[in-house]
Amino acid sequence: MTSITIDKAARTFGSVRAVDGISLDVRDGEFFTLLGPSGCGKTTLLRMVAGFCPLDEGRILFGDARIDTLPAHKRNTGMVFQNYAVFPNMKVGDNVAYGLRARNVSKADTERRVEAALKLVQLGGYGTRWPYQLSGGQLQRVAIARAIVIEPHVLLLDEPLSNLDAKLRVEMRSEIRRIQKMLGITVLYVTHDQEEALSMSDRIAVMRSGHVEQCAEPKVIYEQPATAFVANFVGTTNLLKGTVVTRTGNDVEVKVGTTGIKADAHGAAAAVGQGVVLSLRPEALRLVASGEAPPPGWSTLVGTLGETEYLGALTRFQVKVADGTVLQLMSLVPPQGDAQVTIACDPSRVVVLPEDA
Ligand SMILES: Nc1ncnc2c1ncn2[C@@H]1O[C@H](COP(=O)(O)OP(=O)(O)OP(=O)(O)O)[C@@H](O)[C@H]1O
Ligand SMILES: [Mg+2]
Question: For residue 85, is pLDDT > 80?
């Protein structure tokens, strides 16, 4: 159990600045996620913490102690990888015991700790099985047991669920969370799956080409994204360019094409005349039935109905507005009737963002 301080860490491979001077503070006992698209530097940063990738610049501390200068085996981290890396030629118990043997723990202690770790991942009694006798989810739990049996200060997980099928992935999310809470351990978790990040994390750092774009709690990342990149990467959204035309307190009106869209500024410093990007999530948009008025205070857009995608509980559909922009919408009931539709925008859910760099 410990806090992690990453202080201006940087690493370059050839011409690629994989990690471009990142600073992050992970709290003691926190579940902290690095989220971002492929190649943004998540694994490199995690490997820096684990000790498998030397830093070009910067420092990493566990608590008050600098650790980036220590070899990997002296950092007391447990690591779980994407491809579960369970040794196929060792029984489950021996797999879990591996790290303890390397640390010269006595036989009796090893047996006790292996069984306790297996119990924690709900595989009590599986020690004498062979890996080929286990399912994917069970194998991944063996990998977690092997990482936690050494009682690490920090648990590092790099896309540990990406080899599992969709249902198991969802089950394992709460399983990992449960284990983390039981142990009260600090977790640094890597994923490119935004739903996984939102559902599991205390805080998320959204990464983009080697830097952190935003670091905040899941709800803030989703509802108050700091940039258009974050709004677009986390969840579905519609990004529209416009110009601020009026501002009253925190409420602004943004002209998009010929339409005025009202928005709560969400604290963004949006000045009149400034170019901005609006983020309209599907849940900020609602179809207005013909003959009905939009909710008071909501702006409206007119368009034509495009493709409809039935998703079971929800229907996703598109509306093409006057300037040709296609908006993504969602509703519980499939849209019916006219090709011509009116969309209302909830001003409390419209987010005003700076124009993308
Ligand atoms: N050992 C290496 N040698 C050269 N380039 C590397 C090396 N490791 C990583 N890179 C490059 O650094 C960048 C970041 O890679 P990294 O593996 O950290 O990304 P990632 O965010 O984990 O991506 P993914 O989601 O695909 O796993 C990429 O451009 C990658 O090609
Ligand atoms: Mg990676």
Answer: no
Q: Which domains does the chain show, CATH number per domain?
A: 4-230 (3.40.50.300), 236-354 (2.40.50.100)
Distance of alpha carbon 296 from the chain centroid: 35
Supply 153's token pair.
Answer: 């200060």
Q: Look at ligand 1, atom 24, and give the residue with the nearest C-alpha.
A: 38
For helices 107-120 and 166-183, what crossing angle results, to 10°? 130
Per residue in 5-61, pLDDT tens? 999 999 999 999 999 999 999 999 999 999 999 999 999 999 999 999 999 999 999
- Count Cβ neighbours within 10 Å for each residue of 117-150 and write b for 16 or more, e otherwise: bbebbebeebbeeebeebeebbbbbbbbbbbbbb
40 C-alpha to ligand 1 centroid (Å): 7
- Report the C-alpha gap between 340 and 319 in whole angstroms: 9
Which pLDDT score is estimated for 1? 62
Mutate to test the pocket of ligand 1, among 43, 79, 158 (most ligand atoms within 8 A of CB): 43
Instruction: Pick the residue whose CA is nearest to atom 11 on ligand 1.
Output: 18
Q: Between 137 and 227, where is the model more confident?
A: 227
- The residue among 11, 28, 1 whose CA lies nearest residue 68 is 11
